[in-house]
Write a structure and sequence with these properties.
mainly alpha; 4 strands; two-stranded antiparallel sheet; disordered N terminus
Length: about 325
Amino acid sequence: MMYRGGVRLFSTLTARTASTEAAASILAGQTNRHLSTFLVRAPVLGLRNRSTLALGGEKEQQREENVQTTGAAAAGGSGNKDEKRIVSYWGVEAPKVNKDDGSEWKWSCFRPWEAYEADLSIDLKKHHAATTFSDKLAFWTVKSLRWPTDLFFQRRYGCRAMMLETVAAVPGMVGGMLLHCKSLRRFEHSGGWIKALLEEAENERMHLMTFMEVAKPKWYERALVFAVQGVFFNAYFLGYLISPKFAHRMVGYLEEEAIHSYTEFLKELDKGNIENVPAPAIATDYWRLPPNSTLKDVVLVVRADEAHHRDVNHYASDIHYQGRQLRESPAPLGYH
């Protein structure tokens, strides 16, 4: 009903009825004083009703329409047509990316310009001889970690690789984070080492995402990842705070062990003890492998990555051994 001076005159329903009657009267050529009054006031009623209720309803409907679901979200972060799509008021939306051949890029965890071809010509046999006490401590710390790993996984190299990558992706993130905080505290550049270490962490994580497609972890292996990652993260965090040169040297030796593990993995593939299945799609795109690539090709490029990480971390430790800071020597960005 309408109000006039606090008095309720007639309801919206009455107004609608009156408007219908008014239209009929006009068509019949009949008008009266009350009808004329309504015709003057009715548009005001309609306008106000539109501004408060109808527009409010439209805004609510627009909010609901902003979340558009065309299907279940695709696993692995792929951007296919069945992926849940959210349109936000803030206008933040990743642009669609295509491959060189024009097909749609289906990975949201990395982009085509981040993919690369691994350098398989790198020397896999390089080794840093431990001479100082700190180097020997780092070397035997890694060796002591290998024994329970061999005992638990034995020749299940798919699961072993998965576990190895959950640990190998931690040092780069911890080192990059601590260098980032140091750069902020001291108002100084990092020489590119923050980005280099974070690149290493992301590369190791992509190794894990790849082997997750090959070896499905069991519940107790997932529980082991929780325990090992919790212990290793905190231990490496403290170790890096105390001695970055020790921390980088230990990672260098850890990468040497990774090279050895992937070499054994390749031997099992050659013997036929492990099925040489087709390469996962994510590996094909990330390392720009040929379409007919297999698991062996994936292990080869992953092993090459580990060799590059070995070099970077031994190099970082050598910088500290010479009494210098990492920022004094440019970081090997993009060293794959």
